[in-house]
Amino acid sequence: xxxxxxxxxxxxxxxxxxxxxxxxxxxxxxxxxxxxxxxxxxxxxxxxxxxxxxxxxxxxxxxxxxxxxxxxxxxxxx
Length: 78
Hints:
mainly alpha, 78 residues, elongated
């Protein structure tokens, strides 16, 4: 796997962790009215949604850089 992809994923995970820690430190989760199960569901939903977005964007960039897009585009012209 490319180093830039691993770094990009690590930075995204770090950014999510910083935001969640800031919200927790400021007591924003207690004011939301959510229980423990709601906070866990919110956290997992956020992580999975962002993970899906990061993964799809990484695949888009990888496909563009590897030249596979040109192979598929040129296949229809033969």
